[in-house]
Amino acid sequence: MPKNRNTFSSLAAWRRRVLSRAVHGGWRWVQETGAVTAEHPGRLRFRRLGPGTRLAFPQGTVFGEEWIVLGDHCIIAEQVTLTAGMLPGLDLGPDPILTLGNGVVLGRGSHVVADAAVTIGADTFCGPYVYITSTNHSYDDPDEPIGRQWPRSAPVEIGPGCWLGTGAVVLPGARLGRNVVVAAGAVVRGEVPDHAVVAGAPARVVRRWDAESGWQPPLRTPAPVPVPQGITPEQLAALAELDPDNA
Question: What is the model's pTM?
Answer without folding.
Answer: 0.85
